[in-house]
Structure formats: C-alpha cells, structure tokens
Automatic annotation (TrEMBL):
PROSITE patterns: GLYCOSYL_HYDROL_F32. Keywords: Disulfide bond, Glycoprotein, Glycosidase, Hydrolase, Signal. Residues 12-318 form the Glycosyl hydrolase family 32 N-terminal domain. CDD domains: GH32_Fruct1-like. This is Beta-fructofuranosidase, insoluble isoenzyme 2. GO terms for molecular function: hydrolase activity, hydrolyzing O-glycosyl compounds.
Amino acid sequence: FVTNPLLRTGYHFQPPKNWINDPNGPLYYKGWYHLFYQYNPKGADWVNTLWAHSVSRDLINWNVLGLALEPSIRSDQYGVWSGSATILLDGTPVLVYTGIDRPDTPYQVQNVAIPKNKSDPLLREWVKPDYNPIIVPDSGMNVTQFRDPSTAWHIDGQWRILVGGEKGSHGQAYVYRSTDFKHWVRAKHPLHSAINGMWECLDFFPVLMQGKKGLDTSDQSGRVKYVLKSSLEKARYDYYTIGTYNSRTERYVPDDLNGDYHRLRYDYGKFYARRVLVGWANESDTVPDDIAKGWSGIHAIPRKTWLDPGGKQLVQWPIEEVEQLRRKSVSVTNKVVKPRNHFEVKGLETYQADVEVSFEIPNLERAEPFDHAFSNDAQKLCRMKGADNKGGVGPFGLWVLASANLEEKTAVFFRIFRDGHGKPVVLMCTDPTKSSLGHDLDKPTYAGFVNADVSSSGEISLRSLIDHSVVESFGAGGRTCIISRVYPSIAVGQNAHLYVFNNGDVDVKVSRLKAWEMESSKMNN
Ligand code: DQQ
C-alpha cells in the first residue's frame, strides 16, 4: 500500500521521482525563486547526493531545471553536500557548499560555485573557480564533521560564514571571515557551541524585534535579535535559540542561557534543514518501500517567519501564495462538540486540503493538573496521553486522513492542563499511532507546548495542510508547528475523511471552521 500513487503529495515540494533531502541555497534572482536540494538522480535512497535545481515565480508552482552541482573537481569528487547561497555586493549569487574529497572517509571541505552567465535569470549553469576549495579543516579539527556552510553576512567590510562542526561532544559554529570571498580565515573561537553533538545545516540571521518583515542576513538596521539554528545529527531535528550578536567580539549569546537545553524548535515533527523557511521531511516507511515506490522525501510549504512580540520565540505561517490553490470550501460555525463526541466535516474531498479552525476554550475547572516533570518533554507527555486517552479539557482537535469507520485516523489536537497557579498549559500533538493499518511504518507522536495566552483570548486556533501523506499543522497562529508523514491504507483519495473530535470531559465549541479542497500545484513536471 505504501507504493499507492494516491499517497504521493499534490502540493508539497518534490521532484518527479527519487530521493531528496535538505533544501540548499534558496535565493531570489531576477524575478525567480531558486531552490536547490540534495538529490540522488539514480534512486530513492541517500547515496551520491548532489544539487538539483528548481525555479518558481511564487514558491508554490515549480519547474525543474538540470542538475546545478555535480561532483566534478578534486575537492568535491566524492560528494556535493549541503550549503547556502549568498548574493555578493555587486549582485552576483554565489553557492557555497561542502565537498567530499576522499573516497574512504568523508573528509569535508568547503567550495564555491558562481553563475556562468549572470544575465540568465534561471542561472542554469554554475562554474567552480580554480581557487577551490575555499576552506579546509585545520589540524585538530574533526574532518568528517565539518560541513553545511551558512549564508554569509557582511559587516564593516568583512564577510562571515558559519561552518558546522563537532568537537568532543560539543556542536560548533565555526566562523570564517573574508574580504574578497576567496580567502577565508577562521576566527579564533566559534560563534557559539553547546553540548549536543554535531551541528548540521547551521543558520544564523537577524529578525526585527517588532513587525513581521524579513531581513537580509547582513541587515543590522533597526532593532534586531539574532536566531541561531542547528540541526542535530543524532536526534534528527532542528532547534534554535534567540540572542544577541556582537560582530566585534564575533560572539553570539542566547538570551535564555539554558536555551540550548530547552531547545525551541522550528517544528516539532519531521522538519530538518533551512530557512526561507523550507524544511525537509523524510519518509516514515522503510528504505525498500521507498525504492519500490521510486521516491522519498518532500519539502514543507515555505513559511514566513518572524519574532513573536514577546521576543522569546519565532512564529511561522505558510506563505500566502499557497492560498491560490484553495478551491471548493465548507464552513462550520458555533458548533458544540460534547464530551467523547465527534462530527464529520462533509461536502468536500479532504485528502488534499487546507483546514482552519478556532476552538473556544472551555472553562478550565476540569483541566488536568500539569506535572512539571514534563516541562521539557512535550513529546513524552503526548505519547502517554495520546488522542484516545480521555482527558479533562481536551484532547480536542481534528482527525484527518481518517477512514469512514475511524479505524484509520491521524489526530492533530490540543490538551489543556492547569499549573499550580491555575494557569493553562497548552499541549499540541500529532498522534499518528492509528494512522494506518499497514506494517513497518514509523509512527512517532510529535508534540510541543503552545506559548499562547489562551485565557485572555478565550480561543485557540489550528491550521492543517493535508496532502495525501503529509499533515503539516500550525497551532495558535504558528506558535507551534508540527509536520508529520503518514501512510493510510484505507483513508486514501476519496476514502479520506475529516472529523472534529472531543475526547475531553467538557464541551468544546468550534467557533469557526473553514476547509478548502486544494488544487495540485505544478510540481517539477
Ligand atoms: N545531509 C547532507 C549534509 C547534511 C545532512 C548530505 C543533513 O551536508 O549535514 O546530504 O541532512
């Protein structure tokens, strides 16, 4: 059943076939969005990855171009791994990427590529200057954990770039500086480091303290904070901290000094790699299944990202361009869902849909007490208290990709607890444990706390982008995001249903719900 073509996505980014992982070097040039990505042109498994290239006018409809970077020089002959794009001061885009230059150990160095023809808006051909590699690891550095150069930023006449690494058990954000983008020298100490293993796909960028406008990496005007994101190689998720950056001392200090342990995440589901914000979500089936179905990996819908007015976290929302795919819709207003009850949202196909719903928060008297032992482990709490585990206030939310008799369903929901002072603690979960009757699937429950003042607003909202085998959800306007992969065996195509459920002890009111069928986008075909 995993090879059922009805499980292939309709509007999430992917090539026509084969393996993809990290988004690489997104850039905007002469009216086109360019997206590169780790790609195996020969199959649906992670071997021989290089950079494939797609372009778009709106980040939703994509055209595939030829491969952008393939192994071709001594310093990338055994692999073209992840990296970034930077636009130089004269407008020239440059790709900086990791090359593997030895056959036996993945010895890692950093290379650049520049457009062959700058007047081509599609930037179809890239050349690798003969001064490559631009950065090699110093002696004493871990040469197999030294990769994924970030977008560069320019301050006081100098470019800076980060390269991720590992020293002992500490993740490292090494800083390299250059005036000409050719000769690079490592700063004495890293920008930041913390005790949590190899840091892949580092990202470092300023965010405005007020407003939603995005900033160029070099922009220091206005009052800004900085975001440092790393992808944890072993745990396979991204986390970030928010802090301040001093370009003279070349140091970044997180505002929350324990931030590296609290680990705010872009997304509490399968979301790995980089910003527009685009992330890679891998499959949850087996490698043989991927090879049989001929494709593996998708990218999330690009997300607009800004700093929450409280300054403590980022907020993300699907770019508005995705709304052009909305077609037929249905609405529900002011509908009460009794305890242990549910209702179906009828009148549209929901295997490819966009659903926005607002729940009125009921009285919290019946809310379960919050156990602070779980303060740093939402996922564990949600594994224990899944969607079918009856609660006080909640679990309430959506069953998506559900079969008619509910033997298959993926639950996206909230559960509200009360702390010792009577304050609400909101948990958001995606529980895929009942998503499929199929075997050999990875069905991890994902969860995060939602930092939203539900007592004063009296409401909490949820948006889910459903796309055959993807459920990408945004809680409380994008304060907590969870993307997850599921593979129903019955609830596919027109057999997929959508429900609102309440497994709590008190009534929950759907103040508004609107669901749209989504058209397929043009996806690299
Ligand atoms: N995958 C790339 C690496 C990166 C890792 C190679 C993260 O450069 O560190 O495909 O998914």
